[in-house]
Amino acid sequence: MKPSDKLIQTIREQQIQPVPRWRFTLRNLLLWSAFAAAALLGALAFSVVLFAIQQTDFQVISHLSHSRLELFLGLLPFFWIILLIVFLIIAIYSIQYAPKGYKLTLARLVGYSAALSILLGALFFIGGGAQRLEQAFAVNVGLYESIQEKKVKLWSMPEQGYLSGQIEQTSAGAFQLKDFEGKEWTVGHEGAFIPPVVLLERGEKVKLIGKMDGPGRFTAAEVRPWGGMERNGRRGRGE
Amino acid sequence: MHFTKDLCRQLSDLEIIRKSLEEVDFFSCLYERYEASLLRYVKRLGVTEEEAQDVLQEAFINIWKNLHAFDQSLKLSSWLYRIVHNQAISCLRRKKSFGKDQRAAFDEGLLVHISDSDQDEDSPEALEEKDQHARELLDQLPLPYKEVMVLKFLEEMSYEEISDVLKIPEGTVAARINRAKKALRKLSPRPNF
């Protein structure tokens, strides 16, 4: 028997049927959908990374005399960075197995997926979505430590010269501050650097670099706006 | 239903596929059209003469099952080579000794393509010796290098076709060929290889 006849005989005997076209179409559709979803979720993660970078006080790190690396690592939004990487990998994997996906080199796959996530993520960040997403996480995910909470922690180290809170009362050369733990402070600011954006008004939230003089007493060398907090909102402290 | 070679010859690849889906006997036209070249390729990859026909049968069963997956923007031959390639590699991997003592059953004289162009100056005996040497060298290459060399120089495929067969980017094909050539130069004590 000719091999070609044997082949046809096998197909007939075993009643082998071609896989329906719709299954291949569905598979391709799922792969493209997975790519789109992963790129979109990667974009959301990237937007929060951007938000975290915006909220990070790099000046503080430069002021610290020790544990800068530890502080820097503590400020990095690892959760979102890991999410971004995971979604990028899913996006790359999906497109690689999509029709003609193999034509793209790994560098291009990474480049295109990352570019899409960065572009969409930047747009989402500019639109304010990153802040809302981060806030939703902070409210709904118990174990998640929000960027704002990390920021409050960083600016609640009066012994090391970092203090933050809301101005309660002002007087010449000094103001009363309630920190985010609710503790009252008398802050002297004579000769301190105060940018024009800081009005030193009652109810204004500020962060201070300076020196703790004693219990409830702090001398500011710099008074900066708290920044972002009012717009972002957060659970618990700092509101 | 019996098909004469003349009837098969009148049909294009796509027509055969279309008619096969209506009547399975037409599928034999496809098998017969590509049987010789695909069998040769399977053997070049290192599958033994006895197993080659089985590999081809299994591969064509897969081709039949996946007939609706054929992307018409590809050359049909590239798609067929891809499925046959995968089947051959699966067969080779099942064998314990794969990668150690495998010797591809290359056709005589084909590997002169990867030798230098001064072969005309060699006697038939010298040419035969050179081919034998080339076969031994190719067998020493890792599979990713060996397969691109076989497709490029023995199957005489373009980079694009190799890319479609192996499902790797064309740049990777080029890089592997370059590395394979370098590896061959290192392996060969002969200055002209």
Task: Give an overview in words.
Chain A has 239 residues and is α+β, with helices and mostly antiparallel strands. Helix content of chain A is 52%, strand content 17%. Chain A has 2 domains: 21-140, no CATH class; 155-227, OB fold (Dihydrolipoamide Acetyltransferase, E2P). Chain A contains 9 helices and 5 strands, in the order ααααααααβββββα. Chain A has a 5-stranded mixed barrel with strand order 1-2-3-5-4. Chain B has 193 residues and is mainly α. Chain B has 2 domains: 12-103, Orthogonal Bundle (Rna Polymerase Sigma Factor, Chain: A); 106-193, Winged helix-like DNA-binding domain superfamily/Winged helix DNA-binding domain (Arc Repressor Mutant, subunit A, Orthogonal Bundle). Chain B is globular and about 55 Å long. The A-B interface holds A 3-8, 10-12, 16-21, 23-24, 99-100, 102-105, 108 and B 21, 24-25, 27-28, 31-32, 35, 53, 56-57, 60-61, 64-69, 71, 73, 163, 167-172.
Secondary structure elements and their pairing?
The complex is a heterodimer of chains A (239) and B (193).
Chain A: H1 3-13, H2 21-55, H3 58-63, H4 68-75, H5 78-97, H6 106-126, H7 129-140, H8 147-154, E1 162-171, E2 174-179, E3 184-188, E4 205-214, E5 217-225, H9 229-232
Chain B: H1 5-10, H2 13-22, H3 27-44, H4 49-65, H5 76-94, H6 124-140, H7 143-154, H8 159-166, H9 170-187
Helix pairs in contact in B: 3-4, 3-5, 4-5, 5-8, 7-9, 8-9
CATH fold-level topology of the largest domain in chain B: Rna Polymerase Sigma Factor, Chain: A
Major β-sheet annotation of chain A? 5 strands, mixed, barrel
Count of helical regions of chain B: 9
Number of β-strand runs of chain A: 5
What is the quaternary state of this protein?
heterodimer
